[in-house]
Write a structure and sequence with these properties.
heterodimer; A: 452 residues; Anaerobic Ribonucleotide-triphosphate Reductase Large Chain; 2 domains; B: 89 residues; alpha+beta; four-stranded antiparallel sheet; 4 strands; 37% helix
Chain lengths: 452, 89
């Protein structure tokens, strides 16, 4: 029998340290749902999603019950709608977004991802229509999430798309001004986007994926912090080793749940995403892990190094625990969703510039950043360009989820509620980037992309 | 299927009797049992076989948690694999 100490350790990780399975995400291909008639395409999309996901929530709840591990979210990701909708003559893809929203309601999931386009080298007809539909789609639906990949290391950066995304983000904020620009919290701009990411808002079902797949995202910042509390003052070798061991245990749990969900649903197991995803709950913060390493506040000098160590150790521990690792896999640093990050911004310890540096060494990017509503579309595009360049040059995923909250200024706090938390408005550079963004075109792929 | 029942809380008369009565009524066999005092807290663990259980796992879980509330304790039943996958390679 497992020893009582091991049983207690597992129970403590779940009950006191907020260890959970953050999401079971079912990926569904919509490639066979294309149709010249948009109404017919939407009907096929709705029928396919609702039939494949019929048991998803129930199976998630059964596993939660039997194993005693909370599974916070059950979600769906689909083929980028730019591909599924392109055969129709529909000018706006709003109807497709509404179909996804309705399917998500029927399935009982809380988000559906894939109102997406991959435009790193340029637009097709459908890509352009999808991107221009984003503001209206996100402001009139509740559960639909959108993402646009504007760059890859192999293709370079599509600066026309970067410019247009600045405009779309501003418009999405304007249309949801009453809710602090909430639509922007459901929109991510990526470089090197992974095709099997189970986390929202960036999840979609990539074109190399099978018909249907189960991907699982684990979480557990609280468990890592708690483990580090026991090695106060120890050197970094000990710190890395402690994180690795804990990450191993967390990921084993994810692997078990993923395999069980896959078996019960009769759908192949895709990947486990080894991420540390914080929530606004106290004791579930990535910033607090960094502070536990000895920083007075997240954002102090040393934060980037601490995050680099954390991110690397999580991956090393987690990789050993799962047969298939994928998605984003690393530490997330979404400001509004992390109590420690919110606190660090409010006390002046953490700036946008420092966050940008931190994104060089962790898994995503500038995530859930609230900026003043007066920030221009060009400045937002320039923030995106900086972040995307980091991803392209370093051959990694980076992303921007930024909310120019209408009518809000530095010092204000915008409440989004639930897992999206509340975001303090952060300062952006007052100097303009208009002429830079106006150039457009494509930034060539970096020299190290020529690896063949 | 085997499951682990954990009982955590303040020691008192009738804990094992209360839990094992429910298990016997539902045809659940107790395979192993340990109890200890950890950090002043009574902790009991049972390994049980629920494959011939006469009610659903969810109902058994509800019934044990209910008994826990009556006794002022936390009682949980979880599939054994959650522990073995985390602690055994």
């Amino acid at each position: 029998m497992i020893s009582p100490f091991e049983i207690i350790e597992t129970i403590k990780m779940i009950q006191e340290e907020n260890l959970d399975i953050r999401t079971i995400t079912m990926g569904i291909s919509l490639r066979d749902c294309c149709h010249p008639d948009a109404g017919e395409a939407c009907r096929k999309i709705y029928d396919k999603i609702t039939s494949l996901s019929r048991d998803l929530v129930k199976v998630g709840e059964d596993i939660e019950r039997e194993y005693g591990i909370p599974i916070i979210n059950k979600r769906i990701s689909v083929t980028p709608i730019s591909l599924a909708a392109e055969s129709s003559d529909e000018e706006s893809y709003l109807r497709f977004a509404q179909t996804l929203d309705k399917a998500a309601d029927t399935a009982g999931v809380n988000f559906i991802g894939g109102f997406s386009a991959l435009v790193h080298k340029g637009y097709t007809k459908g890509d352009g229509r999808l991107i221009r539909s984003i503001p209206e789609a996100l402001s009139t639906t509740r559960k639909v999430c959108s993402s646009v990949n504007v760059a890859t290391t192999k293709a370079g950066i599509n600066m026309d798309a970067v410019r247009e995304m600045g405009l779309m983000i501003k418009e999405a904020a304007r249309l949801t001004a009453d809710n602090g620009g909430l639509a922007c919290a459901k929109l991510v701009v990526f470089s090197n986007v992974p095709e099997d990411n189970p986390f929202m808002a960036g999840a979609f079902h990539g074109i190399g994926e099978p018909e249907c797949v189960i991907n699982v995202g684990v979480s557990g910042p609280g468990a890592i912090k708690s483990a580090l509390e026991k090695v106060k003052g120890a050197d970094f070798g000990v710190v890395a080793e402690t994180i690795k061991k804990k990450a191993f245990k967390i990921t084993r749990m994810g692997e078990l749940v993923a395999r069980e969900a896959s078996r019960r649903l009769g759908v192949p197991f895709g990947i486990v995403d080894l991420s540390l995803a914080p929530t606004p709950t106290i004791g579930d913060s990535v910033a607090h892990i960094l502070e536990e390493m000895g920083l007075e506040k997240c954002g102090a000098h040393g934060t980037t190094a601490a995050l680099a160590l954390l991110n690397d150790a999580v991956k090393k521990g987690g990789t050993m625990a799962s047969s298939y690792v994928g998605g984003l896999s690393g530490a997330f640093i979404p400001v509004s969703e992390d109590a420690g990050m919110i606190d660090a911004v409010q006390c002046g310890a953490l700036s946008l510039e420092k966050l940008e540096a931190m994104t060089c060494v962790c898994s995503v990017g500038l995530d859930m950043i609230v900026v003043p509503g007066s920030t221009s579309a060009e400045t937002i595009s320039a923030i995106i360009a900086d972040e995307i360049a980091i991803g392209v040059i370093n051959n990694k995923t980076t992303a921007v989820r930024i909310i120019p909250a209408p009518g809000k200024e530095v010092g204000d706090v915008v409440e989004f509620g639930g897992l999206l938390g509340s975001g303090p408005v952060m300062k952006v550079s007052p100097f303009g980037s208009e002429e830079f963004i106006k150039r457009g075109g494509r930034v060539p792929a970096p020299i190290h992309s020529l690896s063949n | 299927m085997r499951a682990v029942i954990t009982v955590i809380g303040k020691d008192r008369v009738g804990i094992i009797a209360g839990i094992s009565t429910i298990l016997a009524d539902c045809n659940v066999n107790i395979l192993d049992l340990t109890q200890t005092i950890m950090q002043d807290i009574f902790t009991m663990m049972m390994l049980v076989d629920v494959s011939k259980c006469s009610i659903s796992f969810a109902d058994l879980s509800d019934s044990l948690e209910g008994k826990g509330r009556d006794l002022g304790l936390s009682v949980k039943i979880q599939h054994e694999d959650i522990f073995s996958s985390m602690h055994r390679i």
